[in-house]
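Listing S7. Sequence submitted for prediction.
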Amino acid sequence: MPYFADLLLQELRSKREEVFRILKASELFLKKYRELFSRRWLQLDGIEESLENVYAVDSSNDEVALSGGGVILFTRSLALAPNGCEVRRLRLDAFYPKRVHMYEEYRRLIREYMEHEAALKAIEEGAKYVLIDGSLYGRMLHVLYELDIEGRESFMLEYVRKYGELLSEARSKGVILVGVSKDSRSTLFKEEVLWREVVSHALKREDINILGELWGELQTNPRKTMEKLRRMVKEGSVDDYVYWLFEEARSAVPDSKIISLLSLEPGFSTPLHLRVDRVYIGTILLILSEDEGTLLQKLVGSFQKSADKQGCEFETLAVEVVRNLKKYPSVVTFYTVLEKGDDPIRVDIALSDSKALPADGRFLSEVPEEVHGALGLLRSLYAGVRGYNVLLLEADRKVKMSVETIKTYTEMLTREYGELLFHSRGERRVFYP
């Protein structure tokens, strides 16, 4: 028996119910959600495959950990077209990470930053569509804070400036940015489905207002919210079904898991129209409708170290960031299943203008032209369960770094600087067996 297998068997038997909660679902759960989601599930009829002027963008990074605690971080990004045309970017960072979680966050953000750089160049090269691995909406919602990494304290503001530049350039050139997420953990679709159901089951108009307040409190104080609901059930102002809707809204089960469990026919969900009207700077909430001066004051106050260090340069950056935040476009997001039995793909599309769209709550009552175009593109790049998007997969393969890649980069660095690098003990086991 493999080492530790006896202990694993004990855990499997004692945690059976816990594991099955994330692997399966009850028949009642599936029945309720099938009824709810099927109302918001559209067919792919009439969506024609198309492949025109598209680039897929991805990134990766890896490090050399040095003796003494320093790291040299290599980050690269790639924009790839079906005809083989490439846009390549590479960046080297060298510093002493103080906090592990902040360093990991920087690694993630610098990858996205480099993707934005590659995407900008792809637009310059004539792209009509740019596919980006990940959520466009999620990138607008990053909590902004000063990084405790020397020389990179204000990097999150530089990130917003670069992302804002990409969004503005795409809008001005009529380029459609499409975020593609294979393993999304979002619950936005589920929450909107459940909320519309709550509204339709409210007994009186005044109950909708009360339930709306409770819905807003669900994220910040779920225990207290559910206690209030239990009292309302006893009083008869809401029924058990509404209580279940609230319970499901606070559940962590993502949209993608529910769609997978339901085995829906090929199609796509009714698009949601999302706007960014607020962001956080640390724990401070920025309401983006506030005047520029107020937002700037809050921003500078939260990046005091950067402001003191960079002076006028920081003020210029802060003004650009505030203006970019206020100009963020709205985003349409939806899920699509391109073959029965395959996992759903979450798709985000940055809209090119801010025109009013007919809607039912946050659900659009008409499917925008950009959605049809993106679906046609995704269908043309689909190669079955093992190939959800051949262009993104190829970009991922080409941009990913191997141990051999890092060896080569390290040797180049040593030759260029004429310095012998002393690796940390963990790295020595990799590079010098």
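Caption to Listing S7: primary sequence and predicted structure tokens for the chain studied. Residues 402-431 form one domain. The first strand starts at residue 41 and ends at 43.
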